[in-house]
Amino acid sequence: MGDYKIQLLGKVIIHGDIEVKTGLMIGGISSSLKIGGVDISVITDPWGKPYIPGSSLKGKMRTLIEKKEGLPINAAMTEKEQPWRHQCQTPEDYQKCSVCKVWGIIGGGDFKIPVLTRLIVRDTYLDEESITKEMKANLELDFTETKMETAIDRVKGQATGPRTTERVPAGACFKDCELIYSLFYSSDLEDLKKVFEALELLEHDYLGGSGTRGYGKVVFKNLRVYCNTVSDYESGQLNLSPVNGDLKTPSEVIKNFEEIKKKIKEKIASCLPAS
């Protein structure tokens, strides 16, 4: 590995809220014993409230940006599977691929040095106050609704049996979503834009299951973007002032990304190695 060195310049912290526009179903463990006879349940935290796993959000963002970039689908988890995802196989390809540099790779290929993942996505938890009294009066469960569905055999014209799906209702809000983006090289600032592009694409797609049947429309709002340098971590002066000002949505951030990038670059300038 020679003199290969990793130097952290700083971290961009993205906070925001996720508002549910149509019923959201991110599946947990199905159980016919659950109240109301639910066949497909949402995933819940230890207190029984639904939440959005960081893995679900990060995975969906990556899938959408891979399609937007037109990347080859060339990898699977096992040798027996058909390829269903993109992953760079050589360091040369990796250096040209924003997606693998930001979202990371699982391993393998012809890599002789550590491969860095820039993006961390946290689990995001339900804001209980977003489930109003009026909403609760019309919900079958404490924080969720149930939806009865029947599949129809298109050839025979016969119903194959009803099932009950649990969903987070429209109007619910998941508060303080957190994404953390590490800056190791000055070029990482350019790739940061892909994170906001992925959020923007997700607003015009869906999160969770059954999206083509109307589920899972979400919007990201109240974004706050902070930049913490290595010096900030040494002094404890963190998340002092958002660099995005009044730009609260992914599309607003993208429209003004050059201005935001300039502010971040000025902040980490003292950490950049001398040219």
Report on the architecture of this protein.
The two termini are 23 Å apart. The strands form 2 sheets. Strands 1, 2, 3, 4, 7 and 8 form a 6-stranded antiparallel beta sheet that branches. A two-stranded antiparallel sheet has the order 5-6. It has one domain. Helix content is 26%, strand content 21%. The chain is α+β, with helices and mostly antiparallel strands and 275 residues long. It is globular, with a radius of gyration of 21 Å. The chain is built from 8 helices and 8 strands; from the N terminus they run E-E-H-H-H-E-E-H-E-E-E-H-E-H-H-H.
What are the key terms here?
globular; 26% helix; 8 strands; 8 helices; two-stranded antiparallel sheet; 275 residues; six-stranded antiparallel β-sheet; alpha+beta
Give a short overview.
The protein has 275 residues and is α+β, with helices and mostly antiparallel strands. The chain has helices spanning 54-69, 91-95, 98-103, 133-136, 188-203, 230-235, 250-255, 257-268, and strands spanning 10-20, 51-52, 119-121, 124-126, 145-152, 159-167, 173-183, 218-229.
Tally of structural domains: 1
Report the order of strands and helices.
Answer: EEHHHEEHEEEHEHHH
Number of extended strands: 8
Q: What is the overall silhouette?
A: globular
